[in-house]
Design brief:
single chain, alpha/beta, FAD/NAD(P)-binding domain, Enolase-like, domain 1, 3 domains, five-stranded antiparallel β-sheet, Class-I_Pyr_Nuc-Dis_Oxidored, FAD/NAD-binding_dom, NAD, flavoprotein
Length: 476
């Protein structure tokens, strides 16, 4: 190894979370190095959030347009898949990160390309693709932002079947004739929506009793109903026992529990995520390789006053926007400690704690219909010991929804803490519902009393009138 190069902060992992950490620490005047083995911008920019939404947007726009009188007849044909793929490629910059590198240079961050590993206390060793070795030493903090990878379950025949993960599903350049999707959570539901809309015959095989199991049950029910109406097959409560691929390019077959066999041209395994910690040197600081990294509410690793783990890798909230939120919190924590500014603000909603991870976590799922939620579900609130009431309303009965689309179908729920009369959680399912969730996030994070929400008047005729209807239903 070469002699260590010293920085104030060394960040291991250059996805959106790592980018936000370096942005915040540089803004605080700290010298910062970033280590990345793949593309700067990470999973979200190249294989997840960005390309998936580029594929989904034309599918959802066409679905919405077909529900608008006077427009429906003009959008009856198939999508131009070449144009959709070209638009996706534009947003991923053809899987080139030059723009990200320009930004890093503009804020004075030193990038080390290569595989980084912890190298004992406050050090990271980097091996470049050319075989060069560097040791980076951190005066104040090392921040692990290595994210997650797709989990492919160890079922017989899976290796030879060459299944897709989310990476292949978002970067494919041809529409498979038949696509089998194993899984029922967000990746499965979104990719089923995208590829069915692009012309594939999709079959979803979910082990759970419904889709989107971490949301209110009606969310998965409405999404499954729409997928079936679009021509997809959705089966729940099923397990895959084996997989067989014929030759190098032949069809793939999955064998279900009980012996039934299904055939497709491609197989997407959307069966969860695991931390990318198996080869980052955790053992050199007394942690177990391959594990999620436990942290406190400031994202610092207990027992290591210099080590932080931010984003998916700490398993607090596997969402890009939430990892970026953690990064902003962590950047502020590192800057405050480096400046020796005294006590941190660790009060419940203080500047140095990631409270929203547990109390106001928002998510949007870009299916048809869209599903968006923040905070606790009714079941979660009950398990947490709150005295609650759920208020439900048919979203299609709101005037703005009927104007948005003929036959608008959706549902909304707010979960009310009866002792404080504030919202613990809100869920919206319906076309365009993702644009409703931030108002709910403000209400939940701000613990806005229902008596005050009554004075937040929604504009007519928008779908946001759902707020008035929910509050009326609560008041009786």
């Amino acid at each position: 190894m070469t002699e260590a190069v010293e920085y104030d902060v060394v960040v291991l992992g250059g996805g959106p979370v790592g980018e936000n950490v370096v942005d915040r620490t540089r803004a605080a005047g700290l010298s910062t190095a970033l280590v990345e083995s793949e593309l700067v911008g990470g999973e979200c920019s190249y294989w997840a959030c960005v390309p998936s939404k580029a594929l989904l947007r034309p599918v959802l726009a066409r679905v919405d347009a077909r529900r608008v009188p006077g427009l429906a007849g003009a959008v009856g044909g198939p999508l131009d898949t070449a144009a959709v793929f070209a638009h996706r490629d534009y947003w991923t910059n053809d899987w080139n990160d030059d723009g990200q590198l320009d930004w890093l240079g503009s804020i004075g961050v030193h990038l080390y390309r290569g595989h980084g590993r912890l190298y004992g206390s406050r050090k990271v060793a980097v091996t470049s693709p050319e075989g060069e070795h560097h040791v980076l030493s951190a005066r104040h903090a090392v921040v692990v932002c290595t994210g997650t990878r797709a989990v492919i379950p160890d079922v017989p025949g899976i290796a030879g079947a060459r299944p897709w993960t989310s990476r292949e599903a978002t970067s494919a350049r041809e529409v498979p004739g038949r696509l089998l999707i194993v899984g029922g959570s967000v990746v499965a539901a979104e990719m089923a929506t995208a590829w069915q809309g692009l012309g594939s015959q999709v079959t979803v095989l979910a082990r759970d009793s419904g889709l989107l199991p971490r949301m209110e049950p009606f969310a998965g029910e409405l999404v499954a109903e729409a997928l079936r109406e679009a021509g997809a097959v959705v089966r729940t409560g099923v397990s895959v026992e084996a997989v067989v691929r014929e030759g190098s390019t032949g069809p793939v077959r999955v064998v279900l529990q009980g012996g039934e066999t299904l055939e497709g041209d491609e197989l997407l395994m959307a069966t969860g995520r695991a931390p990318r910690t198996e080869d980052i040197g955790l053992e050199t600081v007394g942690l177990k390789p391959g594990d999620w990294i436990a942290v406190d509410d400031s994202c610092r690793v207990p027992g290591h006053d210099w080590l932080y783990a931010v984003g998916d890798v700490n398993h607090r909230a596997l969402l890009t926007h939430q990892g970026k939120y953690q990064a902003r919190i962590t950047g502020a924590v590192i800057a405050a400690r480096a400046a020796g500014s005294g006590e941190l603000d660790t009060s419940r909603w203080g500047a140095h704690v990631a409270t929203a991870d547990t109390e106001a976590l928002p998510q949007a799922v870009f299916t048809d219909p869209e599903a968006a939620a923040v905070g606790l579900t009714l079941a979660e609130a009950g398990r947490a010991g709150y005295r609650v009431r759920a208020v439900d309303y048919d979203l299609g009965r709101v005037s703005g929804a009927g104007l948005y689309a003929d036959g608008y179908r959706g549902r909304a729920r707010m979960v009310v803490d009866l002792d404080r009369e504030v919202l613990l959680g809100v869920t919206f399912v319906g076309p365009g519902a993702a644009e409703l969730v931030h108002a709910a996030t403000i209400a939940v994070a701000g613990e806005v009393p229902i008596a005050r929400l009554w004075h937040a008047v929604p504009s007519f005729p928008t779908v946001s009138e759902i707020w008035l209807r929910l509050l009326e239903a609560y008041r009786g």
